[in-house]
Amino acid sequence: MSQLFKAHLGSTNRKMLAVRLADFADDDGKGIWPTVGRLAQETELSERSVQRILAEFVEEGLLVVVRKGGSKPGEATRYDFNMAALARLKASKTALDGCHGVTHDTVSPVTAATPMGDTDDVYGCHGDTQTVIEPPIEPSEREGAREGDLKDQDDPAKFGKRVKALEMGTANNPWPGAIASSTAWALQQFEKLTAEERRLAEERRDAYLAECKAQKVKNVALGVYLRDKKFLAISPLAGKVQATSTKIPVAPFGPVWAGIRVLALLDGPEPVEMPLGVRDRIRQTFETLMRTSEARARSYVGGKGISVGPGGELIFPDDFDQAELRRRVVESGYPRANDLHAQAKNRDRTVTEARFEALADLCEPVPVGSELFERWRDYHEAAGWPFVPDPGSMPVVYFPKGGPERLHLFEIAARAALRQERSNDHAA
Description:
This protein has helices at 3-6, 12-24, 36-43, 47-59, 83-87, 139-147, 159-168, 183-192, 195-203, 205-214, 222-227, 236-243, 255-266, 278-290, 294-302, 320-332, 335-345, 371-383, 407-427, and strands spanning 63-67, 78-81, 247-250, 307-308, 314-315, 350-353, 363-367, 396-400. The protein is mainly alpha-helical. The chain folds into five domains: 3-92, Arc Repressor Mutant, subunit A (Orthogonal Bundle), CATH 1.10.10; 99-134, no CATH class; 155-243, no CATH class; 247-270 and 333-427, no CATH class; 278-332, no CATH class. Strands 1-2 form a two-stranded antiparallel sheet. The protein has a two-stranded antiparallel ribbon with strand order 3-6. A two-stranded antiparallel ribbon has the order 4-5.
């Protein structure tokens, strides 16, 4: 697995995740089954970034899905590395770049040619001890040993996800200032709390922010809230009222679903990373796919607008880099909207705060396939937004009233309605 350390993978995030995956693999690159949550916590990447990079590795042929997870709670997808594909990865630097071939061993000097370190590895540089990757512990053994000492609801492996939930909120109400604060430091403070204190910090989060707003004072950073145990100063009754606040159902493709979705799109995309050497990675993936299926290889590049020349060379369009960035923004730049899309695909009914019911009157049913439906599709494409998923047999999908031309009026009315509803909640 040492080739991962010297391979060019396009970005530090991709390299970090690949190296962490290698830690779980055996010497043959097999047996990788950590959860997305664990990978996110241990690499300090978001879960969405981990999912995206894993999907890229599978698409590029670097990872092979052995067994899809999700059939039962907590079950992770199992992967194996494609060792042949790893062997074809380009190196990030030339052999012996920055290396001096000397170990300073005063007893038995060695040279770069001495067969130590990774076998036949000129990139090993200093010829030190050979790296040995221990076989992974079976999931049942690993989880069983840990769960024996932990309560089900206070698993340290989930702390990162819980802190992220404290940052983002559950209903479009992120912690003010969280974007400029250290998540890692907040996580450290969260870990120092007792299980009961962690529960109270989560339960009284919204009540604390509401109290700050009511008193017209600035809330502290999330890490300070946890370190100073500000939640203990909040009335238990306030926490209970917040916890039992009215929820409403959110039907897929319905009016509330549509209103929340479009507001998330209007908020703009999150920053999306464009990996270095993306063209080289596409060429490598194309060559890998060509060895097994020419049709699949051509479909892969065709989907990116890339044509294949008479000699098998790839011909990239002039606007490829801009188009690839737009594609990545659509796929991962709007996480809230894409979460709603995933729920709609599975026909999952979710719940949200009652205040979002105000959006229902601002949306209208649009017949699938109608002229107005297609105008909405064109507007999404022009704006670089992900469009609604396939509605299947659904006869209508809800969109803001008045079509794309009146979208600005919807935004004004929707944000005003939500501000009023929140103001009413605080007054109550």
